[in-house]
Amino acid sequence: DAKTTQPNSMESNEEEPVHLPCNHSTISGTDYIHWYRQLPSQGPEYVIHGLTSNVNNRMASLAIAEDRKSSTLILHRATLRDAAVYYCILRDVYNAGNMLTFGGGTRLMVKP
Amino acid sequence: EAQVTQNPRYLITVTGKKLTVTCSQNMNHEYMSWYRQDPGLGLRQIYYSMNVEVTDKGDVPEGYKVSRKEKRNFPLILESPSPNQTSLYFCASSSTVSTGTQYFGPGTRLTVL
């Protein structure tokens, strides 16, 4: 699977929007973009995924660049509970092992 | 409630003493897998299973065994644990192999002395 690059950490104020960037310049046409997060002392949690079009769900929005070489996870109103490590992951649709390759992720800190 | 459960959550053992970490899911998922998480190395896949009686190696299978006799259960077996298997272990499941989202268990923190 292609590699992703994320900032090591970001800070946000509570109740403000947060934009978490991810670069994936070597993405292939069959790679889905997945976002997971891991809260302290918990297992990773699925947030959102997409292929080409922007996606929205109850947790977040995913904005995908037109050339698909970057994407942004948007938390519309950060809460203290959103403090976590956020992972941007590419998964080839033909990945037989369904393996998720977790990189370093972005540690999001939310200030009250 | 849809969930993946793991037991035990914490385990301290000694080198060479066989142990099993259980994983169970109640979502009727075909796919299950095991990861280990180590500082600086992220999460790495150990084994996965696409369905009952179908298992395959992930990135770091050495020293581990798995079995998938029932759809809901996917135990991780350490026949002869060693200190380098001290880690945080996560079980995960998903409904579709190619694009499904994965649900992770709460983790098992294993210490091998």
Concise overview:
Chain A is mostly beta strands.
**What proportion strand of chain B?**
over 45%
| Largest protein interface, residues of each chain | A-B, 22 and 25 residues
How many beta-strand segments of chain B? 11
Q: State the helix count of chain B.
A: 0
Over the alpha carbons, how many angstroms does the gyration radius of chain B reach? Answer: 13 Å
Bin the strand percentage of chain A.
Answer: over 45%
Give the number of DSSP strands of chain A.
9
Envelope shape of chain B? globular
Helix count from the secondary structure assignment of chain A: 0
Largest sheet entry of chain B: 7 strands, mixed
Shape of chain A: globular
Strand order of the largest sheet of chain A: 1-9-8-3-4
What is the assembly state of the chains in this entry?
A: heterodimer
Radius of gyration of chain A, whole Å: 13 Å
Summing up helix and strand content along with how strands pair, one would put the structural category of chain A as mainly beta
* Sheet having the most strands of chain A: 5 strands, mixed
Mean pLDDT rating of chain A? 92
**What's the helical proportion of residues of chain A?**
under 10%
Share in helix of chain B? under 10%
* Strand and helix order of chain A: EEEEEEEEE
